[in-house]
Amino acid sequence: MAADAPDRMTQWVARTMAQLRAQGQAAGLQAMLALAMERQYSASPAERFFTGGGLHTFGNFDDKDNGRVMTVAEAFRHSVNLVFIRMMRDIVNHFIAEGPARKDDLLDDPRHPVRQTYLARFADQEGTEFLNRFWSDYKDMTPDQALDRLAGRIAAQPDRLAAAFRSVRPNAGPRELAAFLGKRLPTGAPPQAQVEALYQKYDPAAWSLNDRGYIAKVHPLELWLVAYLQDTPQAPRRQMLKESSSSRQESYEWLFKTRHKSAQDSRIGIVLEEEAFDRIHAEWRRLGYPFESLIASYATSIGSSADRPGALAELMGIILNDGVRLPTARITGLHFAAGTPYETRFALTDREEAEQVMQPEVAATLRRHLMDIVENGTARRVRGAFTTVDGAPLPIGGKTGTGDHRFERYGAGGVVLESRVVNRTATFVFYIGDRFFGVITAHVHGPDAAKYRFTSALPSQLLKILAPALQPLVSPGDPQTADRGPTL
Predict the structure, then answer these.
(1) Is the dihedral of CA 108, 111, 113, 114 positive or negative?
(2) Is the CB of residue 50 less than 8 Å from the CB of residue 351?
(3) Contact, 158 vs 190, CB < 8 A?
(4) Eight-state DSSP code of residue 185
(5) Which of 186, 330, 342, 365 has a CA 20 to 30 Å removed from the CA of 68?
(6) Do 318 and 325 contact (CB within 8 A), yes or no?
(7) CA triple 354-355-360, angle to 5 deg
(8) Each residue of 103-157: pLDDT tens digit?
(9) Distance in angstroms (rounded) separating the CA atoms of residues 177 and 183
(10) Which letter does DSSP use for residue 354 in this model?
């Protein structure tokens, strides 16, 4: 089974189970998870990863980790980014391998019947992205303004301008083409005979949409959109996308016909990755992930898809409750005017049912390694901050995270043309004992974030500072907190 497995995760599981059984040991889930945390990955940032539709590089928070190979447990303890990037690649490839068609079969056989389906999906998705971008540029313009904007993006050459004009206004005559060229060419309108020749040559009926875009040196869907807005300038975006369906496919006809199989393979890979992330997103949603979509990129493994404090707290509650998601209630009851004619009680009704959303063995493994982060990792400063009534330390576990979010624009050769700070965030999500959990977040939004250098040590220190005030609440000996179950 390991030899035939189409992905590294399945290979490792099958091989490891075979080894355990050959040694007469149990190969249960708990044992496999313990061994999985000892899997080794490179932390090198030198590799480029094809994900999210392009090539990306990633860096570690601490450059000292760059040349190391380490276990998952150690990477979790010290927040080493490149280990989690490579883990996410394994996870994505595992979901792809479980898909309707084996990736190797799909990419190895150029005549595989499913290839055309995936290429059509890619054309539709990427075409939609381009149209949305062009729509933002042209949506509030009159037909003449849209044509002028398009012409301004085309080199002042008669053939290119004529091909664009004939595509956008196919019913206009040679006189209108001459006026258009006269306005755009430095030497004015060409001789009448040349205008007539250009008019006949670039009849849109004689060229495909893709060919006309190539001649004009603009994206064919930009040509289509400007032509569409000539007749329906007030059309809503939804209608535009609906009516552009066949044009999106036409603009990618080169992709269906190309003899360069690698060009098709890379685009099929993009769609396969998106399918995998759709399934990953469904799994994350069961654990409280708060967003309706997930960015299809390995960067999601290091927090680039963002999150919300409430969702992180809910996830920690699931881990603390052996994988069971319990309903969250901020108020359990209100009691007014006791012993009077006006006595009133309020209580929650229609509470959600508890749901097992994570394997108990997974939750137990996570708790151990979250505690390791506090004992030996990035959250050491809160170690021993809480105690029982007799002075024994309460177990504390947690995960730190720091985000320095920037908008960067690159030019040729990878030169940074613009770097703008968006925000800076540091978070500590934690549990205390077997009942209490929460999140502390430090956040600076906007340009002022560039002035700050704080890391996740800040929210960890805040919890330590708050410990004396929280101690009476979390102490197991406090009768006020007995028998209430896990608390947020």
Answers:
(1) positive
(2) no
(3) yes
(4) S
(5) 365
(6) yes
(7) 115
(8) 777 777 777 878 888 888 888 989 999 999 999 999 889 999 999 999 999 999 9
(9) 10
(10) P
